[in-house]
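Usage

Read records sequentially. Each one opens with the input sequence:
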Amino acid sequence: ASEANTLSGFVMPESVFATPEGVTYISEIGEFGKLGDGKITRIAADGTRTILADGLNDPKGLDLFNGQLYVADMDRVVRIDAASGTQTVIAAASAFPQKPVFLNDIEIDGLGNVYVSDSGDDHGNGAGIFKIAPDGKLTQVLKAKAGIKRPNGLLMDGPDRLLVADFGTGKLFSVQIGSKKTSVTLLNQGFGGADGLVRDANGLLYVSDWAGGNVWQLTEPKATPQRIIQGYQSAADISLSADGKSLVIPDMKAGTLHTVPIH
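and closes with the structure output:
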C-alpha cells in the first residue's frame, strides 16, 4: 500500500465526509465545551482549505444529503448549505424529548430521514438515537439503557435498520426501527471506544476505535474483526475517500487528517 497522506493544523477534528467529487468536509470541535469556536472546514480537490461554517459549538458527526451538510452540534442539529455556508438549526435542544447530552453521529437514509446518536454521559444517562423526518418531526427511536450504553457511530444497513457502534462498551449492534418498537441485536464486540462506521464498495465494514487509535475491517458485521490500522492517538469518525479506495481518518487529539489506502 502507498503511504498515508497526512494533513495537519486542525483543532480537535472529529468527523470527516468526502464527496465523490473530491471535496472533503471536516468538523473541528475547537475546545471541548467552549461555545462558538467550532467550525466546518472545506477542503477542495486541489487541497485548498476554506471555512464553510463557523460559530458552531462542538460539531461532531457529519453527513451530506442533496447539497446540504447535516451536523450534530453538541445539543442541536444544524443544516449547512454546502455551497453558501448558510446555517439552519433543524432541531434545537428544545425539540428533543429529553435534554441532549452529547449528540455525536449523523446518518441520513435515502428518503432524507436524519438519524442522530446521543452518547449520553459516561454512564449512558441521557443516551439515545433520534430521527428527524424530512418534515422536521423529531422522534426518539432508541431510548437510554435499551441495550446500547453509549450509541455513537451510525450506518444505514437497509430500510429502517442501523448499525450502531457503542462507544461505552466497544460493541457493534444492529437496530431495527419498527413502527411500534425498536429491536436491538448484538453483532460483534471488542472495538474499544467504538466510534466511526463506514462500508466500502465491496461491502467491507470498517470500525474506528477512538480510545485505542485503531481501525478494524470486517467482511460482514458478525465476522472476526481484522485490525488494519493502528497507532493513532484517537481515530474518530471515519469516511471513505472520494475514490473509495482509502479511509479518511481524523486523529482528534493530534489535530490531523489521514488518508490511508485500504485496497
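Summary fields computed downstream for this record:
- The radius of gyration is 17 Å.
- The chain has one domain: 5-261.
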